[in-house]
Amino acid sequence: MARGNTEVPQESERGRDSAFRRGLESEERFRQIFSHGISKSTPMQDMHEHWDFALKFDVKKIRAVDEFGESSYHWIEIYNVNGEAGWLYGKADYVAFETKNFWVIVPIKQLQDYIKENMIKEYADKKPYYLYRREGRKDKLVMVPTIDLCSIGFMVKR
Fold it and tell me: How far apart are the C-alpha atoms of 78 and 14, rounded to whole Å?
């Protein structure tokens, strides 16, 4: 009994182009979830390293803990201790705020806009949304309740 051709049939050129195009469309839909700051891999990175997009995160550790063992607020650095632009204006795409049970992921642009809209341009000692400066330093910080960060970002369970 003669065997037929055992070679796997190749996809037609048009079929490959269509599948490639659908893949690119899917990647674009995913990229739009993040709205900005996402880097596309080169064709070589996609083919050999197997990744499509890169994001930069600035991770902020858990701060003060309340009576329930949860972080009730986070500090946003507008100017650093040297008086230079703080991490709020760094090159990260997202800020990941740690809490006891989850991470709050906030797009940096949304955080910048939120702080600009809600910051009270007066100094006070550790009051939400008021400017705060540590003695002997040139920094400017704003304390933001964690629950408010959740309203402009999304949570990921730890």
Answer: 53
Using alpha carbons, select from 137, 3, 158 the residue that is nearest to residue 71: 158
Instruction: Check if the beta carbon of residue 40 is closer than 8 Å to that of residue 30.
Output: no
The whole model's pTM is what? 0.71
Asked if residue 73 and residue 46 are part of one domain, the reply reads no
State the first-to-last Cα distance of the chain, in angstroms, to the nearest integer: 61
Please state, in angstroms and as integers, the Cα–Cα distance from residue 102 to each residue in 77, 87, 97, following that order. Answer: 21, 21, 9
Q: Which domain holds residue 97?
A: 57-157
Considering its fold, how many domains does the chain have in total?
2
pLDDT in tens, 23-62: 787 667 756 655 566 778 898 988 888 888 888 888 998 7
> Whose CA is closest to 134, among 80, 93, 92, 89?
80
- Digit-coded pLDDT (tens) for 65-118: 565 555 789 999 999 999 999 999 999 989 988 888 888 999 999 999 999 999
